[in-house]
Amino acid sequence: MIKYVHIMISEKFMPPYMDFIQENFDESEHLFIYITSEKYQFGLTPSHNVKFMHTDDDFLHLANILKAAEKIILHGLWRDKINHLLVTNPILLKKAYWVMWGADYYLPESKSEEHREVIKNVGYCVTHIKGDIALIKKSYQAKGQHINCFAYTSNLYRQAPININRDHKKKIIVGNSAALNNNHIAIFDRLYEHSSDINQVIVPLSYAKIGGKRYINQVIEHGQSLFGEKFKPLLDFLTFDEYMTYLKNIDIAIYDHNRQQGMGTLITLLSLGVKVFIRPSVATWDLLTSQNIQIFDTNKLSLEGMSEKQINNNIYNLKKHYSEKMLVKQWQSIFN
Predict the structure, then answer these.
(1) What long-range pairs does 273-280 form, CB within 8 A, spacing at least 24?
(2) How far is CA 306 from the centre of its chain?
(3) Count: domains in the chain
(4) How far is CA 271 from CA 109, 110, 127, 165, 306, in A?
(5) Is 239 found in the same domain as 99?
(6) pLDDT tens for the 336 residues of the chain, in order
(7) Residues 214 and 91 in one domain
(8) Do the domain assignments include residue 155?
(9) Which domain holds residue 249?
(10) Which candidate in 29, 66, 133, 146 could, as Cys together with 3 as Cys, close a disulfide (CB 3.0–4.6 Å)?
C-alpha cells in the first residue's frame, strides 16, 4: 500500500536517495514521481520504478494520488504546476513535508504568489539548518513545523584516508558550480598573492542555473590569466566517484557563497581533513560551529593547513552528526 508519495525533479541527489529508501525502508510504501517527461539522468534507471508526470492529464491523476497518500514528500519546490495543485487543495499542504533545498526559498522577491503561499502554509519544513527556518519565517511567514533532517546521502560523513601532513604546495577548490554567487573572480584575485604556494586551482563549472556560458567564460579567462596551467576548470558533469577522486586530493576549499549551499560537498571535504572557508554570514556557519566543527572565514584567507587535532576533532563530530544511522533515524521520524 502506498503511504508516501515523493515529488521530485531530475537531480543528482534523487537516485541515491531512492536507493537509500530501498535499503532501509519498505519500498512498497513509497511512490516516486518525477515532474518531467521520461528521462534517465544522474544514475536514474528503470529499476528505480519512477513515474514521470508532466501533462495536464497527468496532473489530474496526480491530484487523486496525493489525496490518497498518507504523507507527501516535496523534494524542493521547483514546478509551478505543483504549487498550483497544492494551493488549490489546501488539505494536501497540511500533510506535505517540504525538503528545503535553498534556491527554492532564497530571493523571496523573485518567487510567484503561489510559491510563497506554499511555503507559508506547508505543514512541515524539513532541514537541519535552523537559520533557514528563521529565514522562511521572516520572509514568508512560514507556519510549518520544523523537522530536523539532513535529508540526503550526499550529506553523509564519508570515511577516507587522510593526509595529515599537508605541507606541500596546495590544491585549492573554489566554489561548487558556475553560479555567480560563488564569487570566483574576487577569490582568484585574493589567491593570486599566494600563487607561489599553489599547485592547482580547481573550479567546478559544470553546474549552473544563473550566470550561464558568458559567466563561465569570464571565470575561465580570469583564472587562466592569473594561474596559467595551475588553473583547472571542471566543465563536464562528473560521476560521484570521479568527483571524489578530485576531492580526496584537495588541501583547501573556498566557498564564498552569500547563502547556504553545497552542504554535501562541504561535509565530504571536512571528512577528508580539508580546510574549508565559508562566509560567517551564511546559515551553514552557525550550524557547523554549533556542532563543534572547525571552519574558517573567507575574509581571512590563509594557505596554512589545519592541525592534526583540528582534523581529528572535525572527523569525530562529523561521524556523530552525519552518519547513515542518524539519517535513517531522522527519516523514520517522518515516516512514522
Answers:
(1) 273/162, 273/163, 273/164, 273/166, 273/306, 273/311, 273/314, 273/315, 274/247, 274/250, 275/251, 275/305, 275/306, 276/252, 277/252, 277/253, 277/301
(2) 25
(3) 2
(4) 36, 35, 21, 16, 13
(5) no
(6) 899 999 999 998 899 999 999 999 999 999 999 999 998 988 898 889 899 999 999 999 999 999 999 999 999 999 999 999 999 999 999 999 999 998 899 889 999 999 999 999 999 999 999 999 999 999 999 999 999 999 999 999 988 767 665 568 999 999 988 888 899 999 999 999 999 999 999 999 986 554 578 899 999 999 999 999 999 999 887 777 788 888 888 999 999 998 877 888 899 999 999 999 999 999 899 999 999 999 999 999 999 889 999 999 999 999 999 999 999 999 999 999
(7) no
(8) no
(9) 170-322
(10) 29
Cβ pair 151, 157 in contact under 8 A: no
Residue 325's Cβ-count burial label (10 Å; 0-12, 13-18, 19+) is exposed
Of the candidates 148, 150, 153, which has an alpha carbon nearest to the alpha carbon of residue 15? 153
Q: Is the pTM of this model over 0.90?
A: no
C-alpha span between 110 and 106 (Å, rounded): 9
Q: 167: which 3 cell numbers?
A: 605541507
List the strands of the sheet with 50-52, edge to edge.
Answer: 50-52, 30-34, 4-8, 71-75, 96-99, 124-126, 145-147
